[in-house]
UniProtKB/TrEMBL annotation:
The lineage of its organism: Eukaryota, Fungi, Dikarya, Ascomycota, Pezizomycotina. This is Mitochondrial chaperone BCS1. The gene is g3421. Belongs to the AAA ATPase family. BCS1 subfamily. Its main location: mitochondrion. It catalyses: ATP + H2O = ADP + phosphate + H(+). Residues 29-210 form the BCS1 N-terminal domain.
Length: 469
């Protein structure tokens, strides 16, 4: 009975296949499935072939090489062949404009503009040696949490056989970037939790243009050079390769200028943090110090801010810096502190610093960059008027005038005058009288700091207005 039933169900299945409509449907369906399968197979095979035959390099915007590669891509290239030049034409460009105002006195608005064209978003093809490289520049929809900038990548693809072209490309791009930055100092500042170049790299300041008191500059330069030559010595002894300098003194004595010039001299950049900056916290400071850009002097301006943050809130609710004393000490040499570093700290208020900061490992060398001395005034005169005042007569008169005014700390009769001036003020005076030596001598009275002017504030006030106008 059971076997009979089975036979009959087979019979009905056969009948179904005998139905031309049904059989046709099945046929079509299997054709479709086969086609879909073949398509998928082809995609997989193509992917496999791509993976085996092509090489991909992805550079994200966060990587320092990103701008170099973009600059390299924008290089004009000579293409020997007609076809090559057609293939590698870039149709999609983006532009970066820089303007410089060189029109001088009394005019405004940008005059010189330079346009820097680089490949825009999308796909392009470039040729490097014999290799064709496909370039894909993409902007992602996600953004960097710190800066709000969208993520970007550049992807370079070429045939496996030409993979060594990448080494050549990166070397060339790096050389190009190095050449563009030759003679320049890059200043980095903290943007969010990251270091970013602060504007364009600026021309190196010659170290000779910063005039410190006799021997001061030389002693720092010698110490830094000695430190730089002893890397292996530190490694061999397992000591963190760090050195700290503290420059203190009144405003306008050349502390920041000297550090910038020193960075130029050493071919270093400057990574700058202002400790009194709004939003700078202990965590942020510690994190930034572990991620210092390479070959940079760390510059911590206003080091006293970390010690003076108990002041009252301003009207805007800002209660001073959030960096605390212990936060600064930990960032400088806590367990998480960076292993390699040259740090410069500056302050106008040495009296506010804690002795704990000034111990080897945190600050190894402390120097006062003080008020202008006679030596500095003389050197600055030579830099400004040296070519006109060959005999040195003008310089002598200028120095005598400053002595008369008691600006070097003593009166002419040898008693203390308690009066000093800053190198920044002398520079201001010389800048005002660029080609007029006598004018500089006549206006020397304006170098007297304003705090000493309480009694005769009218006449000196006029001088000041004159100086500044
Ligand atoms: N010793 C110096 N030699 C040459 N230029 C100087 C010197 N001191 C100051 N200047 C000039 O004065 C200006 C201010 O100098 P700078 O910013 O370096 O002073 P600073 O000591 O860092 O002051 P602050 O303590 O207020 O930060 C700059 O333009 C700089 O060129
Ligand atoms: Mg400064």
């Amino acid at each position: 009975m059971e076997s009979l039933q089975t036979t009959s169900s087979f019979l009905s299945l056969n009948a179904l296949f005998d139905n031309p409509l049904f059989a046709g449907g099945i046929g079509l369906a299997s054709l479709g499935a086969a086609a879909a399968f073949a398509r998928k197979g082809a995609i997989v095979a193509l992917g496999a072939v791509r993976r085996r035959l092509l090489v991909n390099v992805e550079i994200s915007k966060q990587d320092p090489a990103y701008p170099w590669i973009l600059a390299w891509l924008s290089q004009p290239r000579e293409h020997p062949g007609y076809i090559a030049s057609r293939i590698t034409r870039i149709h999609n460009l983006s532009v970066t404009t820089t303007t410089t105002n060189t029109r001088g006195h009394g005019t405004s608005g940008p005059v010189n503009a330079s346009f820097f064209l680089q490949p825009g978003y999308g796909r392009h093809i470039v040729k490097f040696g014999n290799a064709y490289i496909s370039v894909n520049r993409e902007k992602h929809s996600t953004a960097n949490m710190n800066t709000g900038e969208p993520h970007e990548i550049v992807q370079l693809t070429t045939l496996w056989a030409y993979r060594h072209a990448f080494e050549g490309i990166f070397a060339e791009a790096h050389k190009l970037a190095a050449k563009a930055n030759e003679g320049k100092t890059t200043v980095y500042s903290a943007r969010g939790m990251e270091w970013a170049p602060l504007g364009d790299s600026r021309k190196k300041r010659p170290i000779g243009s910063v005039i410190l008191d006799e021997g001061v500059k030389e002693s720092i330069v010698a110490d830094v050079n000695d430190f730089l030559s002893r890397h292996q010595w530190y490694v061999d002894r397992g000591i963190p390769y760090r050195r700290g300098y503290l420059l203190f003194g009144p405003p306008g004595s050349g502390k920041s200028s000297f550090i910038q010039a020193l960075a130029g001299e050493l071919d270093f950049g400057v990574a700058m943090i202002n400790l009194s900056e709004m939003g700078m916290t202990d965590d942020k400071l510690a994190y930034l110090l572990t991620k210092l850009p390479k070959r940079c002097l760390l510059l911590l301006e206003d080091a006293d801010a970390a010690f003076a943050n108990r002041r009252q809130r301003d009207v805007d609710g800002y209660s001073g810096a959030n960096v605390t004393f212990s936060g600064l000490l930990n960032a400088l040499d806590g367990v998480a502190a960076g292993e390699e570093r040259i740090a410069f700290l500056t302050t106008n208020h040495i009296d506010r610093l804690d002795p704990a900061l000034i111990r080897p490992g945190r600050v190894d060398m402390m120097l006062r960059i003080g008020e202008a001395t006679k030596y500095q005034a003389a050197e600055m005169w030579d830099r400004f008027y040296g070519d006109k005042d060959e005999e040195g007569m003008g310089k002598e008169r200028f120095l005598r005038r400053l002595e008369e005014l008691g600006l070097f700390g003593t009166n002419q009769d040898g008693t203390p005058s308690n009066r000093h001036t800053s190198t920044a003020a002398i520079q201001g005076l010389f800048l005002f009288n660029k080609i007029d030596m006598q004018g500089a001598i006549d206006m020397a009275e304006g170098l007297i700091p304003r705090t000493f002017e309480a009694s005769d504030d009218v006449t000196l006030g006029e001088k000041h207005t004159k100086l500044r106008s």
